[in-house]
Amino acid sequence: MDIYAKLTQLGITLPPVAAPAAAYVPFVQTGNLVFLSGHLAKKDGKVWVGQLGKNITTLEGKAAARAAAIDLMGTLHAAVGDLNRVTRIVKLMSLVNSTADFTEQHLVTNGASELFGEVFGDKGAHARSAFGVAQIPLGACVEIELIAEVA
Whole-structure pTM over 0.90, yes or no? Predict the structure, then answer.
């Protein structure tokens, strides 16, 4: 299935690439691999602030990770021009702003992983890491970076 038809079916509109908040670029391509810089979860166009285990639930964190995945797809589209060129979502790295006793980072990150599977099918199955961290820039609850392979 065409990736854009799938996005339409899911009610997803890809956002434009956000301007970097510091000294980096949103993506770099080397060979057939595209590396996307970390994307902060956003809600209603603003950074989704909070800490898992304190004032954000696992379910809300999962929604935040899904929101970050949508932003990542917007950047990936800008990087490669056509998401149908993606041959594999290779790896996600997820940082979850969480308290010391919160242990469900993997469940939070499923919000992104499951969406990539829905959109890209078998090509969306990826390796991944999910880390709990003491803080993320701007107080965001989730930040995710991505590596994709393109034809």
Answer: yes
The CA distance from 27 to 8, in Å, is 24
| Average pLDDT of every residue of the chain | 97
51: three-class secondary structure by DSSP: coil
Within 45-85, residue ranges assigned H as helices are 58-80
Q: Is 17 helix (H, G, I), strand (E, B) or coil?
A: coil
Nearest CA among 8, 41, 42, 7 for reference residue 115: 7
Angle between helix 58-80 and helix 105-120 axes, rounded to 10 deg: 40
Q: Which two tokens stand for residue 81?
A: 């021009």
Q: What is the pLDDT of residues 66-108, one digit of tens each?
A: 999 999 999 999 999 999 999 999 999 999 999 999 999 999 9
Calpha distance 11→21 (Å, rounded): 28
